[in-house]
Every structure is written in C-alpha cells, then in structure tokens.
C-alpha cells in the first residue's frame, strides 16, 4: 500500500508530491511507487527504533523530494527565527515607545505612511532617494529633510519610521521640542536613560529641529545626544524648516557639523499643504 502525499515547493517554486510521512509502520514492506515528479521508483528500507521494539519502513526519496523537504525545513526555521526576532523587537520597541510616547499618542501617525503620501512630479526624485535609503542593507548614515513649513516633511519621516518598524527594527521617534521638554525639570526623563535609548535604537528620528528655544542648556543636551549617536555610527533622521546655514546660526557650528557628517541634506520641494487645504475649504464654503 502506497503513502498519502502532500504538495511541497522546490527551490524554483514547482510543487511536487512528497509522502506525508517519511516512514510507514506497516508490518510488511509497503508497496513501491513511482515518483510523480521524476518517474523514479521509490522504495523503502527497514529500520528498527526503540531498541528493536518497533519496525518501520523508511522511504528512499528521489532528489526532487529531498530538495522539496529541504526547502520546507528552511522555511520552518526562517519562520521560527522571524517569530523570535519579532518578539524581541516588540519588547525593545515597547520600551522606546514608553520612554517617548509621542508616536503612540498621535492620532495622525497611523495614516502617515509613504503609501498615503501624495507625491507630485517634483517629489519623485526625493521619493526614490528615500526608498533607496530604506533598501540599504546596513545604514550607518541618516539624512536631513529641509524645506518650507507644511510641505510634508513630518509625514515623510513618519512614513520611513513605519517602514523601519515593519522590518522589526527599533525606532526612537520624537520631535526635538518634545525631547528637550521631556528632559527638563525635576520630573523629566533621566538623561542617562535617554542617552542609552539614543545609542541602542536602530533608527532615531528628530522631527522639527530648530523649533526649540536655543538656550545653553538645550544646545548642550542636543550636542550630547547627537554625539552619542555619532559615536555609535547609527543613523539619525532629521526634519527642519531651516537650511543648514540657518540652523548653524541658531544652534551653532558643532551641532550642524555633526549632522552634515552623519548624512546628506535633502530639500523637500512643494508648497504649504496646510495653506492649500485652507484655501480649498474657503472656496468650498
């Protein structure tokens, strides 16, 4: 009596029939059968298990079946590794989101993906650069997005953060004014804890750099955090309404110099979408 089969893919995706069990426990040798994939005659050999108390018949697979079974085992191991990786990532990401809850508290974040960003013709070059950055295997560099108020910089950088999180890579997202306020005062976050998070996160996002009040205290904190990221050789993604020259006047040369070394500056073209929306509402009213 022959075996029952299951269909498994080979490396080229071809589905072939493979016995559902690698053995038969029949008291007599099971019938030989012809492999549907290659026409080879599949026989069985006798094996004893549990110190001879049980006799089974082991199928002698053809090369096609062995390949399909190897692919199935590789897939199983990959799924197991992905599960472990996802669970580890979830714990690390939850800790970052608890330390900087801006990402989870915003009702806009779930909708601010790259797929939901409406890019016109002049934005296509920038979108290609952002996609290329995402596809890079080992990013040590980040980038800075600059441009006028309301042209989509925050949406874009949050869209990048969504993609990074989907790859089970940790993201520390914060606006710079929120970051500094988070550190300020007796109830603020512990600087050492924030430094550790800045170093450990796979990707750090600083939104709206230049919107903070540039006091000696804020500039000192920004430099310490940025320098820690610089020394870790990990990417930081920055958005700002100011150009590098304007930021240097506001924040000083040493902060901007660090940023320039840590990645390129990409200008986001386009108009203020908020103004356009307001104009449309006036016309509609």
Automatic annotation (TrEMBL):
Domain of life: Bacteria
Cross-referenced Gene3D superfamilies: P-loop containing nucleotide triphosphate hydrolases
InterPro entries attached to this UniProt entry: AAA+_ATPase (IPR003593), IstB_ATP-bd (IPR002611), P-loop_NTPase (IPR027417)
Listed PANTHER family: ATP-BINDING PROTEIN RV3427C IN INSERTION SEQUENCE-RELATED, CHROMOSOMAL REPLICATION INITIATOR PROTEIN DNAA
Gene Ontology MF term list: ATP binding
Organism whose genome encodes this protein: Sulfobacillus benefaciens
Annotated AAA+ ATPase domain residues: 139-261
Pfam families referenced in this protein's UniProt entry, alphabetically: IstB_IS21
Higher taxonomy: Bacteria, Bacillati, Bacillota, Clostridia, Eubacteriales
UniProt GO BP: DNA replication
UniProt name for this protein: AAA+ ATPase domain-containing protein
């Amino acid at each position: 009596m022959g075996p029952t089969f299951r269909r498994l893919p080979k490396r080229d995706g071809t589905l072939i029939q493979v016995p559902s069990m690698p053995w038969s426990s029949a008291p007599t040798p099971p019938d030989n059968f012809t492999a549907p994939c290659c026409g080879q005659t599949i026989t069985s050999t006798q094996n004893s298990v549990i110190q001879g108390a049980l006799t089974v018949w082991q199928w002698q697979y053809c090369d096609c079946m062995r390949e399909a079974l190897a692919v199935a085992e590789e897939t199983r191991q990959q799924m197991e590794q992905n599960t472990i990786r996802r669970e580890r990532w979830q714990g690390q990401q939850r800790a970052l989101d608890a330390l900087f809850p801006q990402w989870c508290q915003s009702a806009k974040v779930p909708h601010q993906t790259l797929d939901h960003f409406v890019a016109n013709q002049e934005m296509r070059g920038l979108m290609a650069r952002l996609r290329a950055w995402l596809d890079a295997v080992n990013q040590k560099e980040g980038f800075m997005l600059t441009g006028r108020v309301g042209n989509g910089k925050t949406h874009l950088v949050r869209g990048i953060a969504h993609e990074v999180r989907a790859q089970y890579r940790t993201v520390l997202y914060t606006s710079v004014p929120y970051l500094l306020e988070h550190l300020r005062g007796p109830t603020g976050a512990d600087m050492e804890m924030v430094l550790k998070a800045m170093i450990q996160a796979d990707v750090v996002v600083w939104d709206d750099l230049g919107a903070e009040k540039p006091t000696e205290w804020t500039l000192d904190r920004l430099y310490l955090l940025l320098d820690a990221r610089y020394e870790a050789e990990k990417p930081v993604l920055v958005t700002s309404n100011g150009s590098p020259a304007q930021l240097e006047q506001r924040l000083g040369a040493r902060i901007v110099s660090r940023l320039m070394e840590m990645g390129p500056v990409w200008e986001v073209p386009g108009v203020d979408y908020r103004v356009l929306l307001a104009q449309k509402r006036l016309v509609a009213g």
